[in-house]
Design goal:
single chain, alpha/beta, 7 strands, about 10% strand, globular
């Protein structure tokens, strides 16, 4: 593929040996003026080189997606804590055996919300099956935050449909590992939230927000703000789970208080089924 390095290329192997030689018998984070600049972690991790790190986090995922023909994505957000129906049922059985009221309450919540996992999985499968029948310009690939829960479900659906999907993970104090359904070569880890968010928006043709917590709300409201302020092109924004979103968020209050315009409420749609979510996206692009 254009721009991709051949791991068996002799020049690449020689360059790798040179890079490894920079650290033989040395502490990588101890300043060393005689190291190659791009092989010097102490130098690359300085405050002054933050701009270079920004560029690298921008460029690496961009080149990899270009190489695989990923031009358009459907970004799926939602709780990392939700589980599949099968796993939720197992957790309930364990909680019943344990007998702890707190564990039982958590397990019942998992069971209640497991249908969102299964719907995100089905949506990932539906969109991917469509994409497999399309030419490059009309393809839309699932893109998630790369973690568990709803993110795992959407990547899983794409995987089960026989397609590829993207995961944009983030390095956290408590390590978040990529879910196993992201396509190898399309699983990326970010240090900077800002660069990760930019990659979500760069190729997004739609956003589907399932019930979730602070992270889901952060991504949802940032997308709404960018589109409202015309800093991003309009895309369909789908809030999956009407009861959840209307209990959590009452946008009519913003209109009544003059904080947003009435037409701003047209930026998003509520849905309760995979079919309706897919219909909103298809109707927006008229295909």
């Amino acid at each position: 593929m254009d721009g991709m390095l051949d791991p068996h290329d002799r020049r690449l192997a020689e360059a790798w040996e040179i890079l490894k030689a920079q650290h033989e018998g040395a502490d990588a984070l101890v300043p060393e003026s005689n190291r190659l600049a791009f092989a010097d972690p102490e130098f690359l991790l300085r405050r002054e080189t933050r701009g270079i790190r920004f560029q690298l986090e921008m460029l690496k995922p961009d080149l990899a997606q270009q190489a695989l023909g990923i031009e358009h994505t459907v970004v799926v957000f939602g709780s990392a804590r939700f589980r599949s129906a099968e796993v939720a049922a197992q957790q309930l059985t364990l909680a019943q055996q344990e007998g702890s009221p707190e564990a039982l309450a958590r397990a019942h919540t998992l069971v209640r919300n497991a249908h969102f996992y299964e719907q995100a999985r089905a949506l990932g499968k539906t969109i991917t099956q469509h994409t497999l029948t399309q030419t490059n310009g009309n393809k839309m690939f699932i893109c998630t935050g790369g973690g568990p829960g709803i993110m795992e479900a959407a990547n899983r659906g794409a995987h089960e449909a026989g397609g590829i999907s993207v995961g944009l993970n983030i390095a956290l104090p408590h390590e978040q590992t990529p879910n196993p359904y992201i396509t190898p070569g399309l699983s990326f880890k970010f240090h900077y939230f800002a660069l990760r968010k930019m990659h979500f928006m760069m190729r997004a043709k739609a956003l589907v927000a399932f019930p979730g917590g602070f992270g889901t709300l952060d991504e949802l409201f940032e997308t709404l703000t960018l589109i409202q302020c015309k800093k991003a092109k309009p895309v369909p924004i789908v809030l999956f789970g009407t009861d959840y979103w209307k209990r959590l968020f009452n946008p009519q209050v913003l209109v009544e208080e003059g904080a947003v315009s009435a037409e701003d409420l047209d930026l998003f749609k509520y849905v309760d089924s995979v079919e309706d979510a897919w219909h909103v996206i298809r109707a927006f692009y008229q295909f």
